[in-house]
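INTERNAL AUDIT FORM
Audit reference: QA-55
Scope: verify that the stored structure record matches its stored sequence.
Auditor: D.O.
Record contents follow.
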Amino acid sequence: MTPTITRRGFLSTSVAAAGLVVLHPFSVRAQAGQAHLRIMETTDLHVHVWPYDYYADKPVDTVGLARTAALVGAVRAEATNSILLDNGDFLQGNPLGDYIAYERGMAQGEMHPIVTAMNTVGVEGGTLGNHEFNYGLTFLKNTLSGANFPIICCNVATVAGETADQDATLVPPYAVLERELTDGAGATHPIRIGLIGFVPPQIMQWDRKHLEGNVTARGMVEAAEAWVPKLKAEGVDLVIALAHTGIDPLPLEPDAENAALALAGVEGIDVVLTGHQHLVFPGPDYEGIEGADIQAGTLAGKPAVMAGFWGSHMGLIDLMLEREGDAWKIAGHTVEARPIFERKEDRSIVPLVESVVAVEDSVKAEHEATLDYIRRAVGKTTAPLYSYFALVADDPSVQIVTNAQTWYIAQMMEGTPNAGLPILSAGAPFKAGGRGGPEYYTDVPTGDIAIKNVADLYLYPNTIRAVKITGAEVKDWLERSAGMFNQITPGEADQILLNPDFPSYNFDVIDGVSYQIDLSQPSKFDSEGVLVDDGANRIVGLTFDGKPIDPAAEFIVATNNYRAGGGGTFPGNDGSTIVFEGPDTNRDIIVRYIVDQGTIDPAADGNWSFAPLNGATVLFDTGPKAADYLDQVKGLTIKAAGDGADGFARYRITL
């Protein structure tokens, strides 16, 4: 029997009970031979089922398929016909995913909680995202076997043919869903919906250790041009591209990572579901890109949507279909990305839906096991991780971040044109007092370290990047960071050290080089990163491998997407120097590093310090608990100097 897609599957009890259903205008206007079809998209779920931040160990209103499920119910109630599709990156991205991968395992016949939840919500088709490969092909195969819906991808092959359509693909390249549509007169008609999936070919670099020698990946447009005609030959009425790729302007390289706009231009594709970039389309994120119409919600004239990330939105494409003989054509469309929360001007969060209990309950056991997992040790640290002195001395809370980034980028550079270049790593203290108050510091004692502690080490969901810059740019990067400090006069006592206008997250330490900061010099850059004194040289004694750094030498620097893309206006970071864009968050990399190492040694290596200034002392305020670690600060003459303002403790540093 052909399934009917009229309000089928999961329906939110709250929507039905409230009786507040308003049909979409297409459903109201449809006549005989016309049918309204709603295409719903989830994308980049990253294992977020419960509305819970496992790093912070608290419920939140901004994430979770259990909340997005309420939108699914509402959308189905508003339309005569609907279908729910997932656009990939569901398998990795939070501690629930890591718990399954590293702790419980994924044996053949077991169910993965994200697949259980997707089955519960009623997903009817999906594609692979790049993160599906993070835990290896056996893990992926065992996970996919539990899905009650086809999962497709046309550009990853176990055996490559002469052309893409001759490849033996890892999963089916496409799927045909046979459904029935109810038209405006109540009559039902068959429809054949073709789904075709795509993933960035960069998976071969990002997960080389799992994929090299096992699969190959083609450019997405090349694969589309080969496979779409075969899918059309199956007699489908509608081709929906499940494109786990973002939206970059044309023209693109053949193996481009963000090719949704180019895919929309492939003949035969009717609708594009996109993702990967964790943004929203249609919306201002893509304003000004030629071919991306944020008013009409189209890419190259085709209806398209990107639904944020972690369940933050439901992507929604409404089609008015008209019957032409035995086939259907698109006569009209509307597009939106419907959010699960609203952010007010004061940055407070207002939830727009309630979490659906049935979805939460479907993975409740795994959720509770994950809570146990994040709260118990996954490794050990041989030194305490604290940030009380991060702005005045090399610091263990930054050291662990830079160590983890170096470890990851070293793997990613293998086999690339940049293999062999020296790798440096940049990190900044996120929790270092300031406006956050005297308790706003990282403080993890020696011994067991749990996953939830990683939130203390790295506050933001930044993603990893690597830039290639010169030795001269390394120096200027550090000069920009040194704007953290006021200019200090030799011989004067008790001068205020920190520039109050300079945020701690812009105080980058670069590990892999050694240097001193001469506070008697003026700052080369102001607090906004504007060059104000080209002749200033606060960074002195800058060495690499024990020798003065060569200004012309090339270095790879591990950092994050914010910094590499120009955030903070740092020399060498304007987006043009990026040589590696990783899909992983810096937080996830720290967790992987801890799990891989078992025992970590984050003790600061003392690669930077202040240059001596005869007779000068400075005052520095930090949290009262800093006293517990005062004896561990190396290379700095520092003593307690009473109370600072607003509950801070004051210290005197002799330069």
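Auditor finding: record pair retrieved intact. The chain has 17 helices and 39 strands.
Action required: none
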